[in-house]
Amino acid sequence: MDIIVSTIMLLYGLLTGQGDAHGDAKQLAVAYLNASAGETIVQPNAPIVTGEEPPGGGGMMPGQAKQDPQPDTPPIKGIYVTAHSAGGSRMESLLKLVDDTELNSMVIDLKDDNGYITYPTTTPELLEIGTAKKYISDINGLMDTLKQHEIYPIARIVVFKDTVLAVKRPELSFLQPDGTIWKNGRGESFVNPYRQEVWEYNVALAKEATKLGFKEIQFDYVRFPEGFENRADTLTFNKTEQSRVDAVAGFVKYAREQLEPLGVRVSVDIFGYAASVPAAEGIGQDFVKISNDVHVISPMIYPSHYSTGWFNQKTPDRSPYETIKGAMDDTHEKLQNTGELKPIIRPWIQDFTASWLGKGNYVKYGIAEVEAQIKALQDSNVTEYLLWNAGNKYTAGVKYE
C-alpha cells in the first residue's frame, strides 16, 4: 500500500529519498530525452519549454459526467490479497475468511509495488512495455474461483511507482544529473505522470483485467514521488505546462473515460490526510479533483499514520475510533460541495500492528481495534471499507458489520 510512516506522511512527505543510483540505468537516457520530439525537456536549472499536453484534463468536463456502471452493487467490504497469496496456498484460508464472514470482496495485485504484472499475460501491447511474472500462474482459474465464492473482484494496479518500468525505459522516469535513474530511500523508482505512454500502458492493463472478469480497477500510487517538489529542479524529465496536480488528475480522468464504458468501476487510493489539508501539490494529489473522476475513493486512514495531535489524540494509533471518526468527518467536509460527482467513500482501515512507532505510541491491533474502526465508519454513515495487512494475516473473530 502507498505508505509513508506517521509524521513524515503528515508533513507532506518531505522524505529526501536519495538512494544510490540504479546500476541498470543507461547513461544515454539523458541524450534520448533531449532528442524526444515535441515534448518538454526539463533539465537542472533549465527553463521549461511547453510541449504537447497529454489527453484528459484536471477534472470533469461538460458532457462527460461520470456514471456508476454498477449502481446496484451491494456495499463492498474487502481485504487486500497479494499476488503471492492469490496464486499460492494462503488463498484457501482467505477464501474461508470471506465465506464465513460479512466480507464480500478481495483487492488483488495485478501490477505490484515493484511494477511487475503478476500473471503470465501474453498480450504484446503489455509485454512491449511491461514485465510479467507467474505469481498467479492460472489467472483464469483464480477468476473462476472468485466467481464460485461470489467474491467481488478488484484489481489493484500500482501506477507511477514502477521500478521495473523505470529500469526498462529510463526515459519514462526521472534522471539524475549523471543520467542514472533516481531512487528514493527505499530503493524504489517512479515513472513520470506526464508521459502518455505510462497512462496508456496502465489503462491497457486495466482493460485486460476487465476482460478477465474484474469488476473494479483500483489504481494506487497515483502521484509523483514523495517530496518531489524538493528535487524536481535537479532531475531531468519530460514535462508539459500542466501543474503536477493537473497531470495526475488528467490520468485519472483519462482512465475513467476509457474504462467506464466497459462496465468497470474505477477507484483510487489516496493518502488519508489528503482530506484534512489543502491539495498536496508537491506530489500532485488533489483530493477533490481525483474524487470527481472516480466511482470510488479509498483514503488510507490507518490510525498508525497520524502523528500526535491529529483529531485531538495524543497517540492516534491507540485511539482507533477517534482517529477514524475524525478522518471521516474531514472527508465528508472535503467532498460536501461535489454534488452528483461525489464518489463512494470506501476507506482502507488498519489490521496490523505498527510496532515501528515505538513503545507507548502503538497498541497491538486485534478484534477490539478493528471493530472500533468499523464502528467509527458506521457512525459516519460509511458502509464500505477495505482491510489492509501487508502479509494478508487478518484478525480472526472480527464482526464485519
Automatic annotation (TrEMBL):
Region listing for Disordered, in residue ranges: 52-72
All residue ranges annotated as the DUF4015 domain in the record: 78-394
SUPFAM superfamilies: (Trans)glycosidases (SSF51445)
Record protein name field: GTP-binding protein
Species whose genome carries this gene: Paenibacillus agaridevorans
